[in-house]
Design a protein that fits this description.
By secondary structure, the chain is α/β, with parallel strands linked by helices. It has two domains: about 1-160, Flavodoxin domain (Rossmann fold, 3-Layer(aba) Sandwich), CATH 3.40.50.360; about 170-255, 2-Layer Sandwich (Alpha-Beta Plaits). The protein is about 30% helix and about 15% strand. It contains eleven helices and ten strands. Helix 3 (about 55-60) links the parallel strand 3 and strand 4. The chain is globular and about 60 Å long. The two termini are about 20 Å apart. The relative contact order is 0.16.
Length: about 260
């Protein structure tokens, strides 16, 4: 079973690719928490790195997974550049549950958070071709049930960004908010939100409902990238259509929870 958490489809696409190669099914993490994976001989975890760590929902839900201690468990991190503590954190949680991670690696993909800093994630599509050989190697290693830990290099930037006080300062930089004048109440953002953190509410002077983002955002940026009206913005900056990104093989319907 390949379990994934995905904001803009990178992790979903990679989970599918690995699942097809290994003959394993794929399942979103929130569903895997409700399932019993203790009979699975292979369990893969595919999730991104946010702020040089695993996303908060991943850290929370991995604690609830039921995995057999004898299973071949691996972690693959799709990321824009560095994984930071994203592998270490989940490996530690699983070890406390009596589950050893046999293999872990990262694969570079377009960075969906680039939009928050005025850059275009779509201009990073070159990563798919450049890192295709690594993806092939990862699949080959997993087929052979290899044991290897590729944590990536340590960096001062990653260490600093992972500090709680630094995250408190930087998290608002990627906090999405709805521009009321642009929102048409279509509900796309609500459907793709991994946290169930977006509501559609009636508002005075409007004929359509207004999307409202709650206070437990995981900064996956699904709402920003999938909104057809570019109505979800970061730090008050307009969202440009040409800078919205999702994996080319993933559609809105694939992301609906």
């Amino acid at each position: 079973m390949i379990v994934y958490f995905s904001g803009t489809g990178n992790s979903l696409a990679i989970a599918r690719q690995i699942g097809e190669a290994l003959g394993e099914q794929t399942m979103p993490l929130h569903q895997a928490v409700q399932a019993d994976l203790s009979s699975e001989k292979v369990v893969g975890l595919v999730y991104p790195s946010y702020y040089f760590n695993a996303p908060e929902p991943v850290l929370r839900m991995v604690k609830e997974l039921r995995i057999n201690s004898g299973a071949y468990v691996f972690i693959i991190i799709p990321c824009g550049a560095q994984t930071g503590r994203a592998i270490w954190s989940v490996t530690k949680i699983l070890k406390e549950k009596g589950v050893e991670v046999a293999y872990c690696h990262k694969i570079r993909v377009p960075d969906c958070s680039a939009i928050g800093f005025g850059r275009n994630p779509n201009e990073q599509a070159w990563k798919f071709e450049r890192f295709a050989p690594r993806m092939e190697q990862i699949v080959s290693d997993l087929k052979a049930r290899k044991h290897a830990h590729h944590f990536g290099g340590w960096s001062l930037a990653g260490w600093l960004c992972a500090l709680p006080w630094m995250q408190k300062k930087t998290l608002p930089l990627l906090q999405p908010a709805v521009h009321a004048d642009k929102c048409v109440g279509c509900g796309t953002c609500k459907r793709v939100c991994k946290q169930g953190n977006i509501s559609l509410v009636e508002a005075a002077g409007r004929t359509q409902p207004l999307a409202v983002i709650g206070d437990h955002c995981a900064q996956c940026l699904s709402c920003v990238h999938f909104c057809p009206q570019q109505a979800v913005e970061i730090a008050g900056k307009p969202t440009l259509r040409e800078r919205q990104y999702h994996h080319p093989k993933v559609k809105v319907a694939d992301m609906v929870h």
